[in-house]
């Protein structure tokens, strides 16, 4: 309801971008992107990218050809399929050849499907033209802080221009690239959603400021997700006993962020190989072996 009419038309059949659509339309994530250019303290590479995903087990990494075969198999069995996204298991734009080859091929064989991508944003400014050329209409960027001092506590290092950078330097580069990427996409008419992982005591109080800044840069939806910090997941945050927000904290935080931007509250933190309606995950039905048998 907060959205202008022009944007509403674009989100009508995307289950993540429209709360109403998620009852009627399905999404598929194809897990073609194994590598990552960031280190997040909540990451455990035995699982999918925690920026977008609930820790499960790591998805079966697919080649672009396998991803296309899977897309066709899912479209045949789930007629509500409207969106195909790349959300890991690492970072979509840290694996640009695999990601763009997958999108190009899906565009050819299933032009009716919308394309969607989620990224930590570090490489985003380099790929805005490619995303626009392929008509990728929806991009999610994970932004956990707009203050590098806070960002450095969450993302201790990055791999940028073939070098590992650490601490404040890394956090500043990441933030500058994220905001430049969001702004460039928004200027070109791409819908940008921002994901933030709420981490009590680290960036929790800071997320309304993130809402404000990303909205100024052109994002239109903020998805505030809870840190999942079970020590058995073996993340750095899990090892130091960092807790996630309580339900009450999360509700309060989403309300605070909603002063500045539309806030998504129906995110399911899906796996990087999720398939089906939000809230159901039929990804396991479309294993590589089964899809190979179908095609
Ligand atoms: Fe892990 Fe995702 Fe962070 Fe990369 S962006 S380090 S895959 S959580
Ligand atoms: Fe949508 Fe959230 Fe699932 Fe991504 S993780 S597909 S935003 S519901």
Automatic annotation (TrEMBL):
<comment type="function">
    <text>Involved in the biosynthesis of the iron-molybdenum cofactor (FeMo-co or M-cluster) found in the dinitrogenase enzyme of the nitrogenase complex in nitrogen-fixing microorganisms. NifB catalyzes the crucial step of radical SAM-dependent carbide insertion that occurs concomitant with the insertion of a 9th sulfur and the rearrangement/coupling of two [4Fe-4S] clusters into a [8Fe-9S-C] cluster, the precursor to the M-cluster.</text>
</comment>
<dbReference type="GO" id="GO:0051539">
    <property type="term" value="F:4 iron, 4 sulfur cluster binding"/>
</dbReference>
<keyword id="KW-0456">Lyase</keyword>
<keyword id="KW-0004">4Fe-4S</keyword>
<keyword id="KW-0535">Nitrogen fixation</keyword>
<keyword id="KW-0411">Iron-sulfur</keyword>
<protein>
    <recommendedName>
        <fullName>FeMo cofactor biosynthesis protein NifB</fullName>
    </recommendedName>
</protein>
<comment type="pathway">
    <text>Cofactor biosynthesis; Fe-Mo cofactor biosynthesis.</text>
</comment>
<dbReference type="GO" id="GO:0016829">
    <property type="term" value="F:lyase activity"/>
</dbReference>
<keyword id="KW-0949">S-adenosyl-L-methionine</keyword>
<feature type="domain" description="Radical SAM core">
    <location>
        <begin position="22"/>
        <end position="268"/>
    </location>
</feature>
<comment type="similarity">
    <text>Belongs to the radical SAM superfamily. NifB family.</text>
</comment>
<dbReference type="GO" id="GO:0046872">
    <property type="term" value="F:metal ion binding"/>
</dbReference>
<keyword id="KW-0408">Iron</keyword>
<keyword id="KW-0479">Metal-binding</keyword>
<dbReference type="GO" id="GO:0032324">
    <property type="term" value="P:molybdopterin cofactor biosynthetic process"/>
</dbReference>
């Amino acid at each position: 309801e907060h959205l202008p009419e022009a944007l509403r038309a674009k989100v009508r059949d995307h289950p993540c971008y429209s709360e109403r659509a998620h009852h009627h339309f399905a999404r598929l994530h194809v897990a073609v992107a194994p590598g990552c250019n960031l280190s997040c303290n909540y990451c455990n590479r035995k699982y999918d990218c925690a920026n977008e995903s609930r820790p499960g087990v790591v998805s079966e990494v697919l080649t672009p050809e396998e991803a296309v075969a899977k897309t066709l198999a899912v479209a045949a069995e789930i007629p509500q399929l409207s969106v195909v996204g790349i959300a890991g298991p690492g970072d979509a734009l840290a694996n640009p050849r695999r990601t763009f080859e997958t999108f190009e091929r899906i565009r050819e064989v299933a032009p009716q499907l919308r394309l969607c991508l989620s990224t930590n944003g570090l490489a985003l400014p380099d790929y805005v033209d490619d995303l626009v050329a392929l008509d990728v209409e929806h991009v999610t960027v994970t932004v956990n802080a707009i203050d590098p001092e806070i960002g450095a506590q969450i993302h201790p290092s990055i791999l940028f221009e073939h070098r590992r950078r650490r601490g404040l330097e890394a956090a500043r580069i990441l933030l500058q690239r994220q905001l430049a990427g969001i702004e460039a996409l928004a200027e070109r008419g791409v819908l940008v959603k921002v994901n933030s992982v709420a981490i009590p005591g680290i960036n929790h109080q800071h997320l309304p400021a993130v809402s404000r800044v990303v909205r100024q840069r052109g994002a239109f939806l903020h998805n505030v997700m809870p840190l999942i910090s079970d020590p058995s997941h073996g993340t750095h945050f899990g090892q130091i006993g960092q807790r996630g927000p309580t339900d009450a904290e999360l509700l309060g935080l989403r309300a605070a962020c909603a002063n500045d931007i539309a806030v998504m509250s129906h995110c399911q933190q899906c796996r990087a190989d999720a398939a089906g309606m939000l809230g159901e995950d039929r990804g396991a039905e479309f294993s590589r072996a089964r899809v190979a048998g179908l095609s």
